[in-house]
TrEMBL record, chains A, B:
CDD domains: GlyRS-like_core (cd00774), GlyRS_anticodon (cd00858). The keyword Transferase applies. Keywords: Aminoacyl-tRNA synthetase, ATP-binding, Cytoplasm, Ligase, Nucleotide-binding, Protein biosynthesis, Transferase. Its main location: cytoplasm. It catalyses: tRNA(Gly) + glycine + ATP = glycyl-tRNA(Gly) + AMP + diphosphate. Belongs to the class-II aminoacyl-tRNA synthetase family. It is an enzyme of class 6 (ligase). This is glycine--tRNA ligase. Homodimer. PROSITE patterns: AA_TRNA_LIGASE_II (PS50862). InterPro entries: aa-tRNA-synt_IIb (IPR002314), aa-tRNA-synth_II (IPR006195), aa-tRNA-synth_II/BPL/LPL (IPR045864), Anticodon-bd (IPR004154), Anticodon-bd_dom_sf (IPR036621), Gly-tRNA_synthase/POLG2 (IPR027031), GlyRS-like_core (IPR033731), tRNA-synt_gly (IPR002315).
């Protein structure tokens, strides 16, 4: 996988091509007196939910109406939203003032590039576009071979109208995106077999539409039944599942939800969101979409640079090709100044249109033909054009690759990881609850704490040496040489989610304590760094380590 | 060192406090007909240099004048620059049109936060401010102890008027900054002894002013002679030297240049730039500045939140404290509605102002006192205020920390590293030059290539297994299973700067070739990953490896 690092400030032309300048909008209403802005759909959603919860005398018809609105909320146009807001008398939540009609607000931060003020730019709303515009170089770097992927991690910016949900919806966030380019005629994946046996909670379209909940499904079966569109999409769904659960996301609170037809961009072949359950509900944390050839085509059209791939045939293939030859002399006589536009319209015909015209011309000798650029219909006669199919030898096939995109909202994943990793346990004294983060060793920002059991110069020196050997081995660690009780120091380290604590209670061997089990083993000082490294990097489990080293039991140590 | 990740989009108030909104400008002139913009100082600089180079008949006086302008260019005001541009008849370089007067252009990319249009924001021009505004939390996280440092790496944005010098001056770039907070009364550094014996090219102020060149100096001596202001600043200079040379920067083309008084911000105590020589000349790649307490004070003033540190005394200290007690009743009688402003002005007096007032009041009974907020002078009598010094026991000292900042322009360093790492050597055939990047193993993006000597299924399987074992060991690697000659494949891998190439020429042992010496050793297949890992991670040198494994000599292999 290639990694790239593209700029955040993006010239307007790129985001014009991608569609963001015209379509990356939310509908907004303004408090007509104070000018405060609100998302129109949020206000309507809150109103419907509120009524459904509190108005117990509501008729069944009315309740069905509110439920219907909640279901189709994303599909409502500005006019429809505005009409509903008027109908229900929704006013500004803070002031009760009347609201403006909804109108689109572009969510990109706008700026100006250079001093002249004539080059508008935007802060990228996603990192993907930087990869698409660099497709030619990336394809070349990969030896002009498909499939290949490029990845990027960096900041993305969305000027939300009214951010909600704490850290989950912010105006600047870290996005990690993979764009996997693939032949649209062959979406198999060489490593598919590594994920096809995985089973986890999936929430396909039909389960959602029939009001059921997510079900444990086998990924390979979902592909063979056509629930997941193709192998490559499934491969990334599987890898996202493995990634998130390895981070420490609870697999019972992780589901893959397929987009409903009304959620999906018109060009997308299929799209699944990895949703994680948190105190805010089910949160979209990773989107895995088959964006088809849409993006590369859009940039090709706008830039005039063909973002395409070639497949060289082992042997030349014979193909039938449509050949349209306008007879310019005849067309000139018939259409004079309009000749050029008629010629272009004839040449632009699709295969079906051309073959239809050919058959009409052969039977009737003439045909009515609509020339859009002239805004009228003209009569084309047999003399004015020849249409044929010719056999040609082709040595290669040129096509626009499809792109399959897993897109990771890093901040949201980390937030959910905090929720899923946090637990409380009673202290030994039983009078208070102690906070623990159960971060897996691979994820924990600090892998190990080192402290002397009691304050004394010898033990402190040993602690210092161990800390240094851990640092040299690349293991992040923290010394605690305060005189606080050992129990309190363990509690502190648990609260930071540090998986291992080394306690120096002699000058030859020390104990290593695991955070969640509170098990302790005894290890000679020389071995500490190697043992902690092995288990921190996931090359051994704590269970493996427990078998190899003697357990240490202490009457007083752990609270 | 703590690491933080602050947003790029920054509210105006933060950059107002830091001074960037008012002062982060360059002087610009416009082509009066086309509107094209130029940096005023660049045009004047180009004019003077051009004249000095080309006008061989120039008088000595005139030459001295141009040289003087080049020396003081950074100090010229808009008026002075404009006058010189007029005097020399400088016109727009592309069109020869007349130019506007110079005026300041703010280099920050401006945007608007949220939908209302009333919250201006800017893309951060440096990452440092994010650390300063979070000082309180960082200090707390560090157990309210100094010194400590916070670091940040991320994008910075400067809307350059007319970027030049290819990749060296771009509008968006990666900046890595460390803010080391320290007691202004004690700028020693605990690890200073690790760097004080280093010797490298330094270019202190006095050598620059007297027209000499940079000299090899011992860092410790530079500190003891007062050339470098303090130990902490020197510690970071030393670490920057070690960092850059370890990356592969040629130490003969690296110098540390001290800022001249006219280059340095007025608040800075001392500032040194690590400059690297490239084809563009000496390029500033790292700035190492003692910014004193300026930034924390500026944010304290603007926000009203005290960004300070405390030093607890082992024993309480007796100190004399100024006590100003306005007698509100008397002031109310005299000043009525203005009483509050007079009270505030009295309380805001410095120690000197208060003691001066005290002595006048004692001798004359009254004093004229200017109240800025009233824009007038009032008469204060003896009855209206008491001023005294009282002895108090203090348990702690409260102060604003100084900050010492190494700031790394990552893109510039990487660009210079390319230049310093690139060399050409004749091919074996002697008919062409082969390109090589001599990236040290630690830095090379790809550590190892693996290829079968000849195309055959067995060797390819071995190559695949070795590649997999390297990946498992965390060593980035690339397979080359094309049928290209072995010499060409070595040349390819050299051009990418890959330090080691594994060639499979049997199913039991393989050769490892080092890029620059072209030495080869023979290693059993099981050991390959461990050997490459050791030398890639810098735990062994190639010389160490050569001693341990048998050399392999091949008649035909290397071009």
């Amino acid at each position: 996988m290639l990694e790239v690092d593209c700029p955040c400030v993006t010239p307007e032309v790129v985001l014009k091509a991608s569609g963001h300048v015209d379509k990356f909008t939310d509908l907004m209403v303004k408090d007509e007196k104070t000018g405060t802005c609100y998302r129109a759909d949020h206000l309507l959603k809150d109103h419907c939910k509120d009524k459904l919860e509190k108005d117990l005398a509501m008729s069944a018809d009315k309740a069905a109406e509110f439920k219907h609105i909640l279901a189709v909320l994303d599909d409502l146009s500005a006019e429809e939203l505005g009409a509903k807001i008027k109908e229900y008398g929704i006013v500004a939540p803070d002031t009760k003032n009347p609201l403006s009609d909804p109108y689109p607000f572009n969510l990109m931060f706008q700026t100006s590039i250079g001093p002249s003020g004539v080059s508008p730019g935007y802060m990228r709303p996603e990192t993907a576009q930087g990869i698409f515009v660099n497709f030619k170089d990336l394809y070349y770097y990969n030896g002009n071979k498909l499939p290949f992927a490029a990845a990027q991690i960096g900041q993305a910016f969305r000027n939300e109208i009214s951010p909600r949900q704490g850290l989950l919806r912010v105006r600047e966030f870290t996005l990690a995106e993979i764009e996997h380019f693939v032949d649209p005629d062959d979406k198999s994946h060489p490593k598919y077999s590594e994920v096809e046996k995985l089973e986890f909670l999936m929430f396909p379209r039909d389960l959602q539409m029939s009001g059921q909940s997510a079900k444990r499904l086998c990924l390979g079966e979902a592909v063979s039944k056509g629930i997941v569109n193709n192998q490559t999409l499934a491969y990334f769904i599987g890898r996202v599942y493995l990634f998130l659960t390895r981070l420490g996301i609870d697999e019972e609170r992780l589901r893959f939800r397929q987009h409903l037809p009304n959620e999906m961009a018109h060009y997308a072949a299929d799209c699944w969101d990895a949703e994680i359950e948190s105190s805010y509900g089910w949160i979209e944390c990773v989107g895995i979409a088959d964006r088809s050839a849409y993006d590369l085509r859009a940039h090709t059209d706008k830039s005039g640079v063909a973002l395409v791939a070639q497949e060289k045939f082992a042997e030349p293939k014979e193909v039938e090709k449509l050949v349209i030859t306008p007879i310019k002399k005849e067309l000139g006589l018939a259409f004079k100044g309009n000749q050029k536009m008629v010629v272009e319209a004839l040449e632009a015909m699709s295969e079906k249109e051309a073959m239809d015209m050919k058959s009409v011309l052969e039977t009737k000798g003439e045909v009515e033909f609509e020339v859009c650029t002239l805004e009228k219909t003209v009569t084309i006669t047999k003399k004015m054009v020849t249409i044929s199919k010719e056999k040609k030898k082709e040595h290669q096939r040129v096509f626009t690759p499809s792109v399959i995109e897993p897109s990771f909202g890093i901040g949201r994943i980390i937030y959910c990881l905090y929720e899923h990793s946090f637990y409380m346990r009673p202290s030994k004294a039983g009078d208070e609850q102690l906070n623990v983060f159960r971060f897996p060793p691979l994820v924990a920002p600090i892998k190990c704490t080192v402290f002397p059991l009691v304050q004394n110069a010898q033990y402190e020196q040993v602690a210092k040496n161990i800390s240094r050997s851990l640092t040299a081995a690349g293991i992040s660690n923290k010394k605690d040489i305060t005189g606080t009780s050992i129990g309190k120091r363990y509690a502190r380290t648990d609260e930071l989610g540090v998986p291992f604590a080394v306690t120096v209670d002699s000058t030859s061997s020390v104990t290593i304590r695991e955070r969640d089990s509170k098990d302790q083993i005894r290890v000679s000082i020389d071995e500490v760094a190697a043992v902690v490294k092995e288990v921190s990097e996931g090359r051994a489990t704590w269970a493996d380590i427990l078998k190899k080293y003697p357990a240490h039991t202490s009457a007083s140590a752990d609270e």
